[in-house]
Amino acid sequence: MVIDSRSFRKALGCFATGVTVIAANDGQGKPVGVTISSFASLSLEPPLVLFCLGLGASYVETFRKASHFAVNVLRDDQKELSIRFASRMADKWAEVEHSPGAASGAPVISHCLAVLECQLEKEMVEGDHVILIGRVLGLDYDPGGQPLLYFRGNYAEMA
Ligand SMILES: Cc1cc2nc3c(=O)[nH]c(=O)nc-3n(C[C@H](O)[C@H](O)[C@H](O)COP(=O)(O)O)c2cc1C
Fold it and tell me: Hey, whose CA ends up nearest to atom 31 of ligand 1?
């Protein structure tokens, strides 16, 4: 069967996900961040997570070189952050409250549903993406908050 890319995207869009902004510091200590839905848990012991980043993405080399990254899991009222970090806005971090994570130094965005601070453990290039695997060094979460969801190309909140 020949897989046409439009149908492939439509089928993948049926898989509902949460939304994260994954962030790291570049070589000059400046924060970079990108909206990512391909985040997944990988292992409990040791605690590993992964995400997939397009090889054509602006910050791909920054993430591949960074020692650490922070996974900022967005809550239902943070759609604007998802749009912002998926865009080519000149200063994505303007007016975004953030601070260096205590465990990793990677940029942690305030008010998120959860944050996982990671050390970059391994990368694997597959197809047109690189899989970045991180070891979780520290975490925080809001036990009662609600997530921002992404389904069929649209944002959704839990009913
Ligand atoms: C909800 C959502 C989820 C996304 N998930 C991913 C992802 O998992 N991997 C990825 O490489 N890009 C993902 N993107 C696209 C990136 O956020 C970004 O737009 C893309 O890397 C292009 O960035 P650039 O224009 O700076 O190169 C997602 C975008 C949105 C809106």
Answer: 86
Ligand 1: which residue has its CA nearest to atom 4?
36
CATH code, domain with 112: 2.30.110.10
82 lines ligand 1 (CB under 6 A): yes
For residue 22 and ligand 1, the question of a CB distance below 6 A is answered with: no
Number of structural domains (the chain) is: 1
Asked if 105 contacts 25 with a C-beta cutoff of 8 angstroms, the reply is yes
Q: What is the pTM of this model?
A: 0.97
- Cβ density class 55-82: b for 16+ within 10 Å, e for less: eeeebbebbeebebbbbbbbbeebbebb
pLDDT in tens, 8-53: 999 999 999 999 999 999 989 899 999 999 999 999 999 999 999 9
Residue 111 above 90 pLDDT? yes
pLDDT-derived band at 159, boundaries 50, 70, 90: confident
| Residue owning the nearest CA to atom 10 of ligand 1 | 53
Its domain, for residue 42, covers 19-151
Identify the three-state secondary structure at position 75.
strand
Q: Verify whether ligand 1 is closer than 6 Å to residue 57 (CB atom).
A: yes
The confidence band for 130, taking pLDDT boundaries of 50, 70 and 90, is very high
